[in-house]
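Re: Re: token formats

Sure, here are both.
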Amino acid sequence: MSRQRLTVVLSQAQGKNPARRALEESIAAALIMEPGLDVSIVPYLYDLGSDHTGRMFLESVQGDMVVLAWMFPRAAFWLLDRDGVKGHYGENQITPPAEVDEDDEGGEPEPPKGIGSVEVPERWIYCLDLRDHNSHDIYVQEVRRIAAECRERREAQLKTWIQGNPTMVQLGRYLRDEEPAPSTPQLSAEELLKQPGRRWYPVIDYSRCTNCMECLDFCLFGVYGVDKLDRLIVENQDSCKRGCPACSRVCPEHAIMFPDYKTPAIAGAPVGNISGLKIDLSKLFGGGDALSIAAQERDRELVADGREAVGLTVGIPKRQADKPKEPKDDLDKLMDALDDLEI
């Protein structure tokens, strides 16, 4: 596989929903006919363990990549980063139908302020959400646009080197890009599509994570740890309790995602404006604030484990106590409006 060709990976949905399978097949059939693309299909990204051939294939890809998956792009990108498939975040131009006419009163989303990823190679990864549209042509057109963008970037890079004075390392890297990557495994379709078991674990967005360790203090199941650089990591993912998103609710920077969770803000929706809400709408009907909900969810899992509930007495965020009050978001304004109406 050449790094001059764009790798397109289609991650299948869980289950056998016929409408989703039909969309996947239509996209794959169209992209296979496109020049300059290497198209592969793997099972659902979130479920791929380290020993799955689909995961091994993703780790072998050297150049730019487009990943089409049934999850928010932010969740897919940081899920790949977690699995060692790293790169720069490529913006896609597909707009979900629900957002086309939405007024953007909040302005641009706040810039990321997290600790960032480490050892990021000079390549770009674009993630497309297959839930946005049911027309395969929209995705095919966007992949074509991305392919052209990647070609222009490589050509501009080469021109810069020619006009300047590239080092031997840079020049050697470019020349090697024309050759097949020797580490790419030759895997059959059956090996790639072997269905893994379903999984549940948190994914960290390091563009937002500030390493405050609030989640590590709050989680009592040993899910989190730190690496040799003292950075927060998901150390024991199989210790996470299926369906529980409590640690995501206590994260002050909205950096923890559960891609399969029903609430968009926790599943990896873009942060900012209405899509960045970090609390279920149950708050509107007496459900309590995010921290209280998280404590209740944690207590439920503790009791299920045969342990005692601890409520709000253990691991409650302390570093947020002196945090400046953030500007009101759309939910705050809605709550104020309901208060004014005395509903």
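Second one below.
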Amino acid sequence: MTDDAPLIRTIDLKQHFPLRAGLLGRAKLTVKAVDGITIDIPRRSVLGLVGESGSGKSTFGRAVMGLEKPTSGTLEFDGIDMAQASPDQTKALRRRMQMVFQDPFSSLNPRMSVAETLGVPLRFHELELGPAGRRDRAAEMMERVGLPSAYIDRFPHEFSGGQRQRIGIARALIMEPDFVVCDEPISALDVSVQAQVVNLLNDLKTSMGLTMLFIAHDLSMVRYISDRMAVMYLGSLVEIGKASDVYFDPRHPYTEVLIASNPEPDPATERQRASTAIRGEIPSPVNVPAGCRFAGRCPKVMPVCHEQTPQLLPLLDEDRLVACHLYHQ
């Protein structure tokens, strides 16, 4: 594929989960966690994905990684339809796509040293490497993520939270992948450590030419590391654009209140913004409301919002996609 073609492309991707009930376990209801996502992630760029808890961000990330088989739609990696890929193609693609998980402790095996943890991917994909070669690669990767290689025989409980997340990043990058999904990689860390991890990811993105899907709640961090930002609400996308444009000049009402809910260090500014913060709770993905999914909480709701579902369409003369009747009637 050419460099102009996106590395990741999803077309109307859906991830639904049946809820089973009764003695026979028949599916009566469906959780629409991801409900028709169409988006491209260009090569060597970072797409930030934001939204409230329950909006489907992590489910989308797992679907893109192939950890969950999509209910319908198309997922392409480097032009290859993942659903149509042969076993050999799938194995080759696996080493090119990796994931950094949210909890740096539960994602690491407490009974395995750092050398063993980092050596597992190499045992499956670098068969020519012996134990000594795997150990050397692991030590090199530790230094690259800012950990002394002398710690290679230590176990997860001997590290701090930030150091454990660096180990998780090292495990994801030791195969030198093209694409990495970072699923809330900083939410379990202290505030003082979050910036260090984000700076590390930003440096590695540049030095390794990575393409990334960065999922997080902290919009300021997403704005800092991302080239483009996508806003997700109840399984669907409501706004996509350049990260700085979306953060400083949001167009969708949900994006506006989501950014207004982002904490500010200045108490005076925080009190002023509190009046515009988001209200209510996100609806259940089992009973998705008709029309615009945000209509029940939107401060700019119109009658049409309860009747027609807005489409994600480009704004005139802007590099922005918005799904809102305020702009498309």
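Residues 191-208 form the longest helix (18 residues). The chain has a mean pLDDT of 90.
- S.
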